[in-house]
Amino acid sequence: MVEISTSVLSVDEEKAITTFYNLEVAGTDYFHIDVMDGKFVKKDTTKKMLKYAEYIKHISNLPLDVHLMVEDVKAYVDSFISLDPDRITFHLEAIRKKEEIIKIIKYIKENGIKVSIAIKPNTKIEEIYPYLPYINMVLIMTVEPGEGGQVLIESTINKINKIKQYINENNLETVIEADGGINPENINSLKNAGIDIAVVGTAIINSNNFKETMKKLKK
Ligand code: DX5
Ligand code: ZN
Fold this sequence. Notes:
By secondary structure, this protein is α/β, with parallel strands linked by helices. The chain is 37% helix and 20% strand. It has eight helices and eight strands. It has helices at residues 16-26, 46-59, 73-81, 98-110, 156-169, 187-193, 202-205, 210-218, and strands at residues 3-7, 30-36, 64-69, 87-91, 114-119, 137-141, 175-179, 197-200. It has an eight-stranded parallel barrel with strand order 1-2-3-4-5-6-7-8, surrounded by five helices. Helix 1 packs across helix 2, helix 1 (16-26) crosses helix 8 (210-218) and helix 5 (156-169) packs parallel to helix 6 (187-193). The mean pLDDT is 98.
């Protein structure tokens, strides 16, 4: 069964606490914290996402799935460590040198946090292969990072097929998460391609019944 990590990017600040509570009651498996630094992507959501992560830590035991769309990965890892997230994802495109990537993987793990690497739609899937044995999860962006509410880019589904095959052929345990534009109408094609976790934002947050939508997504 696919797990759902609900993106809190578009949650309304006034209704945040109630919304987080209702998402937990509706059965979300994770809260997906979309951290943007205004450099790696245009928007800067740093303050809001730190605040939301703190709120969630106070009212829920559900795991935080932190997605860093930032250039200075180490600095942002440091700002989230105290919130004890379950996993932290950074973008392969933010760190080019292999030894730097290995260093940050080790650093996140040393802090008892699961490590995940994300790749943008135009990044070749093969670029992530060398790191798969060392990371807990790979995040396949199914939209360009930087916004909620976009349309899923169909061609990214093939990347999921390919990496699932590679993981199986190499007896790896790396979890596959897809992120962006996912809804009850298209989630089955992602499930068939082999994802373990789906990040869903708008399709849940804008729905008038979180429980119903969650049920459709998990069916
Ligand atoms: C985009 C974020 C996604 C996005 C998901 O940069 O990484 O997590 O907020 O939201 P929807 O489901 O609205 O595409
Ligand atoms: Zn995300």
